[in-house]
Amino acid sequence: MSTGKLSINCACAVGAAFLGIISVAAIIAVFLLTKNPAAVWLGLLFVVLVFSCVSAFVAFLRHKLVLFSNSLCQTIDDMLDGAVPPQMHEEENLFYKVNHRLMRLYEVLWENRESIAKERADLQELISDISHQVKTPIANLQMVNATLLEQPMPEEKRREFLTASSGQLDKLDFLMQAMIKTSRLETGIISLDKKIQPLYDTLASALGGILLSAERKNIHVSVDCPADIVLAHDRKWTGEALFNILDNAVKYTPTGGNIQVTVQSWEFYVKIDITDSGKGIAENRQGMIFKRFYREEEVHDVEGIGIGLYLAREIVTMQGGYIKVASEAGDGATFSIFLPHG
């Protein structure tokens, strides 16, 4: 008989038969050696006691195994049904250890399930946002294209339509690029490469992207950043976050206004303050400006889609930092970026 197919009951029966044969052989050997019936009776009594103890132990062990197997099956059924498995309170034994591992497995599986559900909800929300945002430029492009195809018009008018079409294409391209950056950050496709490096160069790169638009509006930009401040950060994505905040400051600061950038090195964080003299942000809206695609109703005439601050917060948060905003309506705003040294 293969040991792999040998049941517990059969194994117990085989073991009992083997012990019985050995016991009978031992009693016969004692009788032949001593010729004393009392020794035989004592040996027989000893065998009975041993068999009784072994039988009681095997019955107890089998009972515990049955209870454990039932509990194990119940735990697995609960895990499959999504219910919390029952806990055992018999500490420091095999049953407790196995149950404890199953509880940990259940917790990991549940966390994975919740994570997958959250990712699916985020993906559905992102798809909904994309479809909503691209609807307007696509409709405008279709209208312009249909007009150019169906109606004759002078060259000057046709050029105006083509210029409008080019503007919608630029807006659509900007929107898709922003979407790609957002989706890559959220899905973890892009991982930040933090290195110990000067913040001055990163800030200079971000400032380079807004200087032309600031000059067009005659906005004075002042910067106070010590060149010796270094910290662990991803230069490309940190520059992206700083540019988004600076770009917003330029957009919402009137002609002839001011933007001030101040960098301070604290014990655990580096603080970057970006202060503008724009229209400010009402207190009841300061918690909403970092939401994806959020834009205040009175600024819809300003170019943008409301994703820059959302991206900035995500990038800073992924590096262990955070952003605070201090503002009053009509009195400018200060965005404070805190990045950890380590």
3D architecture notes:
With 342 residues, the chain is of the alpha+beta class. It has 3 domains: 3-86; 109-187, Signal transduction histidine kinase, dimerisation/phosphotransfer (DHp) domain (Helix Hairpins, Orthogonal Bundle), CATH 1.10.287.130; 195-340, Heat Shock Protein 90 (2-Layer Sandwich). It contains 8 helices and 7 strands, in the order ααααβααββαββαββ. The chain has helices at 8-34, 37-81, 94-150, 155-187, 199-208, 211-216, 235-251, 308-318; strands at 195-198, 220-224, 230-233, 258-265, 269-276, 322-327, 333-340. The strands form 2 sheets. It has a 5-stranded mixed β-sheet with strand order 2-4-5-7-6. A two-stranded antiparallel ribbon has the order 1-3. A hairpin with a 3-residue loop joins β4 (258-265) and β5. The longest helix has 57 residues, at 94-150. The two termini are 65 Å apart.
